[in-house]
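User: Could you write out the 3D structure of this protein bound to pyridoxal-5'-phosphate? I've included everything you need below.
Assistant: Certainly. Input first, then the structure.
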Amino acid sequence: MPLGQAGMPSVTELINRVHLSTDSTIGCPIKPRHPGSPLAPSINLSCANEFADTEALSIAHENKYSSVRYARDSSDLIIQLEVYLSALHESTSTCIFQSGMAAIDAALTTCLKHAETILTVGSLYRKSSGLIKLKADECKIEYIHLDSIKDLHELKTSLPDKPLIFLETPSNPFLEIQDIRSLRALLPDSIIIVDITLQGLANDKIKIHNFADIVVCSCTKYASGHNDILAGYAVTKDESLFKDMWEFRSMRGCILDSLSAYLLIRSLRTYDIRIERLISSAKVVLEFLKYNRNIDRIYFPGSCENLRQEKLFRATQFHGGSVITFRASSLVNTRKNISSLLSTKMAPSFGSIDSLIEIPALMSHWGKSKEELQTIGLDEQVIRLSLGLEPLDYILSDLDLLLKDHA
Ligand SMILES: *Cc1c(COP(=O)(O)O)cnc(C)c1O
């Protein structure tokens, strides 16, 4: 196995298989390989497509979701990307959006029509929880937040028939895994949306789309991996949810633009090799941190402080990714040291070719009171590192600088 993880799908291989497939349901831009095939797709910036006659137009209307007429609805590159991403999720239906948040907005708007209560579980991306509060207010529906799926057991009997549940796995910044299978077993009739951004692509052992109604992912992170585009997708097995999201996208105009779609396809072509390198660097960095005297705690999926989740981690993901959160000892002046790093940049985001570092209390959780931060276990000693593709020596020497104490 290329990634040292038995059974882990290769994104390149899945893309190759799409082009070899003779499946007639596959949309127009997917061509089987032939002598003279371009290796990279063409960038077509046209906003409108011409029809030869009214017959061709009516065929396009009948095949609305797989044809190309106006670029706010779809385009060749978008359909190509959607076919690739659907293949990653076992031929579900995919909608691509101009950002992860646009995908989350579409998923929430579509599902809220069917729900009476919205429940969120575990820590959430700040803008997602903001958007959920806004939507709950707008729709005048009840909003409940729970710390863990366990808390649902007590609440279960008092819940309405169809709650909408939104959660992320793994969570940020402490990288805890949510047991989506047990959630589905507990509430079989609920509507579940799962954000798998921190998992990345092709890192899902349980085929999460079989347990969640909609799976959303920000491609701005691991999938694009170059910090040069915003993008997101939503996949579902449910045709009617897919059609609703597609219509939402068409009405709101939040489809991914063609240049970004091209760049995302470019990024998928290097996905395996990027992830392979990130996984192997993460292993080395974890060992380095474990033996550093100025590290108090390390958070990584299924290990270190999250060791109690080892079994769940092994059952659900192929690897833990390249984001590592840790607590530096009180001897370390994190504010000062983080400004002295040579190749690691202090910036939000993760999963890219650039090593990025942040103090969540000063970045993603900026503006929260000390007490609010304390309840989620954050202070200025907690650091989130996202590994990039720099030579490991550079990363490790930056960590030496970061963890220097003032003693
Ligand atoms: C970044 C992120 C988002 C939002 O994605 P954008 O592409 O920035 O809109 C949503 N959820 C999680 C977990 C993220 O990390």
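The CA atoms of residues 168 and 195 lie 5 Å apart.
User: Perfect, thank you.
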